[in-house]
Design brief:
Blueprint: H1 2-84, H2 93-153
């Protein structure tokens, strides 16, 4: 009688070991799937953040190009106003009024130039601030991903 009992016991142990091995294999598979899914999510999020960073850098470059174009246009406007000013010919009151108007236009053009410089500086500073935030978020995501990878591999 002992033999059948010990045989049953051995078979039961083998069955338990088989079940244990199967459960272990399933757990490893699920862990691999989870790790792959997390890697995909992290990669996708990091890529989209990096694309946002590139877009902001493009916006900064575009704002600088716009600034340069506007400065050139304002300089052209000032040049045109200077070219319209007649040469000094006597003390005619209408001539004096016209000269004052031309000078006002030159001052307005210079004010436009100063305003554009301020606006450009403010816009670029805001974009750079946003850029730093996105870069910080990318670094945080990458750090968290590497930390998570270390935790999964242990």
């Amino acid at each position: 009688m002992e033999k059948p009992e010990s045989l049953k016991s051995i078979l039961a142990e083998l069955d338990m070991k088989r079940n244990y091995d199967h459960s272990l294999d399933q757990l490893k598979t699920k862990m691999n799937q989870t790790e792959t899914l997390l890697d995909d999510i992290t990669h996708t999020r990091t890529v989209s953040l990096k694309e946002a960073i590139l877009e902001i850098q493009d916006q900064i470059d575009e704002r600088k190009r716009l600034h340069n174009a506007m400065m050139e246009m304002i300089d052209q406007l000032k040049l045109s106003i200077n070219n319209m000013m007649p040469p000094i010919t006597g003390k005619n009151p209408e001539f004096g009024k016209a000269m004052i108007e031309f000078r006002k236009k030159l001052v307005e053009a210079e004010e436009m130039k100063i305003q554009e410089m301020l606006n450009c500086s403010r816009d670029v500073a805001d974009l750079k601030k946003e850029l730093r935030e996105w870069i910080r978020e990318v670094k945080d995501k990458e750090n968290r991903a590497s930390l998570f990878d270390e935790m999964l591999t242990q």
